[in-house]
């Protein structure tokens, strides 16, 4: 009887702890912390949603949608989900698994035969699972969206020319192209676009009425602008191009809407009226699939987790003895992060409108502490110190690079001889022309533009036309006859044809 009473007491105490109400004072202090952190990191605007025990316990917008203008961010303001979209694409894949239309270990070639990789063995062995966990051996191919504008199927065709950067299934390099492949597979199985499918199968059931599969679907003005620090000044920059498929990172949402997605994915994919996934499929999504390296996120140097894994569309690590599932999203001038403490039934989502404003990490871990784990660690200060040092290290590296310039050299040939058309079956086309005493380089019909002064020898170096792209380097090589033979432009190798 005594043991029964003790069991009842412990059970009741645990339930009371789990259901402990968040006090108004606790909310007020967290609110003040978020605003102070936003200002500390110079973020023009952000929004945040926190859910616990299937309830929204905090949501708010901060700052402005566009720097220098009065319109405020609110919980309806639309921001880019960016790569946090990947978890939604995985959920769509999981629905097809539940319906018996594909399996995680099916060969990709069964659904997407045009996707051929450099190694024929890898082409044959590549599975749906591999598309989703960044372990294929293929390094980043973001040049296919950043340095050119080609159809997704053409991206797949060119993958055969991309040499692997590590052995198949023996490493981790983040890969967006393969998530585009996952979206294309969804389209072929369902018979609708990825955008239509995600609206129909996720947004509508969850009541996400202010969530768009792509920015091009947005029709009202309550959306943020992207911002970048250019020469120590915060400036509004252009939106990036909309994705053709969108499955790697195209969704836009608001704090109000994204809270519904957070609750659903914390509660084994349940929503009011049903569930998106079978319990075993939801479990598989959050089961570790591979490892990610410590340098994937600088934050790991401070967090010092005992383990770091990647599930299906989710990074994972331990924090204060608890499992964390999280994912970031980054587009030029825009950020997002989502994180879960499943054991505490706590989830958080932070949107920002300032390029790589890593206050997102600080607010996520602060929310974990504040609403579940306790403690007063000031993550904003610690991460600000960490990233400030990284920026200083970057400036030192730039100064070191600049110091290696060989002064008083001249190009090997007159500038006009560098001009012409250069091509590559992988990277496309580069047009080089003379602009005064500099070279103008146009890659893939204005996908990239730069006017570059001479640096040294046959190398030209300077800023991109879009300053937020950073600086570009063009290095020309001459053949044995002293004629310009090829151009290496920021690592992309082009052969001169005229």
UniProtKB/TrEMBL annotation:
Q: Mind telling me what this protein is named?
A: Beta-lactamase
Query: Domain Beta-lactamase-related, which positions?
Result: 30-361
Q: Which organism is it from?
A: Spirosoma radiotolerans
Recite the UniProt keywords alphabetically. Answer: Signal
Domain named Peptidase S12 Pab87-related C-terminal: residues:
405-496
* Segment forming the signal sequence: 1-18
The highest taxon in the source lineage is: Bacteria
Q: What is the lineage of its organism?
A: Bacteria, Pseudomonadati, Bacteroidota, Cytophagia, Cytophagales
Instruction: Name the PANTHER family for this protein.
Output: BETA-LACTAMASE-RELATED DOMAIN-CONTAINING PROTEIN, D-ALANYL-D-ALANINE-CARBOXYPEPTIDASE/ENDOPEPTIDASE AMPH
């Amino acid at each position: 009887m005594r043991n029964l009473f003790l069991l009842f007491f412990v059970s009741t105490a645990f339930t009371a702890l789990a259901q402990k109400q968040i006090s108004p004072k606790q909310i007020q202090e967290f609110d003040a912390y978020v605003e102070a952190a936003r200002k500390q990191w110079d973020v023009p605007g952000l929004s945040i949603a926190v859910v616990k025990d299937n309830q929204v316990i905090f949501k708010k917008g901060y700052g402005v949608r566009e720097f220098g203008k009065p319109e405020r961010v609110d919980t309806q303001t639309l921001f880019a989900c960016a790569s946090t979209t990947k978890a939604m694409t995985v959920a769509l894949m999981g629905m097809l698994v539940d319906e018996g239309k594909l399996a995680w270990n099916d060969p990709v070639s069964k659904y997407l035969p045009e996707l051929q990789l450099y190694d024929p063995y890898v082409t044959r062995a590549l599975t749906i699972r591999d598309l989703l966990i960044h372990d294929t051996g293929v390094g980043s191919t973001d040049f296919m969206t950043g340095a050119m504008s080609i159809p997704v199927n053409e991206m797949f065709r060119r993958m055969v020319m991309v040499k692997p950067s590590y052995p198949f299934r023996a490493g981790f390099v983040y890969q967006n192209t393969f998530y585009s492949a996952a979206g294309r597979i969804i389209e072929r199985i369902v018979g609708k676009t990825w955008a239509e499918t995600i609206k129909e199968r996720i947004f509508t059931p969850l009541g996400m009425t202010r969530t768009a599969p792509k920015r091009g679907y947005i029709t009202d003005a309550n959306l943020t602008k992207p911002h970048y620090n250019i020469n120590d000044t915060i400036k509004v920059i252009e939106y990036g191009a909309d994705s053709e498929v969108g499955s790697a990172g195209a969704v836009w949402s608001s704090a109000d809407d994204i809270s519904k997605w957070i609750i659903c994915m914390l509660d084994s994919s349940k929503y009011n009226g049903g569930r998106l996934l079978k319990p075993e499929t939801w479990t598989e999504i959050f089961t570790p699939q591979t490892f990610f390296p410590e340098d994937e996120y600088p934050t790991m140097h401070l967090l010092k987790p005992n383990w770091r894994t990647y599930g299906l569309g989710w990074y994972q690590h331990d924090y204060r003895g608890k499992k964390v599932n999280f994912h970031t999203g980054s587009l030029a001038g825009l950020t997002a992060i989502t994180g879960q403490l499943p054991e505490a039934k706590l989830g958080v989502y932070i949107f920002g409108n300032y390029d790589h404003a890593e206050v997102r990490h600080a607010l996520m871990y602060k929310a974990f502490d504040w609403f579940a784990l306790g403690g007063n660690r000031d993550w904003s200060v610690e991460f600000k110190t960490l990233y400030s040092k990284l920026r200083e290290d970057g400036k030192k590296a730039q100064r070191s690079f600049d110091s290696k310039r060989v002064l008083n050299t001249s190009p090997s040939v007159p500038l006009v001889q560098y001009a012409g058309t250069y091509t590559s079956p992988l990277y496309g086309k580069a047009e080089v022309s003379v602009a005064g005493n500099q070279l103008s380089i146009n890659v893939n019909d204005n996908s990239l533009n730069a006017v570059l002064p001479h640096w040294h020898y046959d190398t030209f170096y300077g800023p991109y036309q879009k300053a937020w792209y950073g600086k570009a380097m063009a290095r020309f090589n001459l053949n044995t006859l002293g004629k310009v033979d090829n151009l290496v432009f920021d690592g992309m190798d082009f052969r001169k044809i005229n």
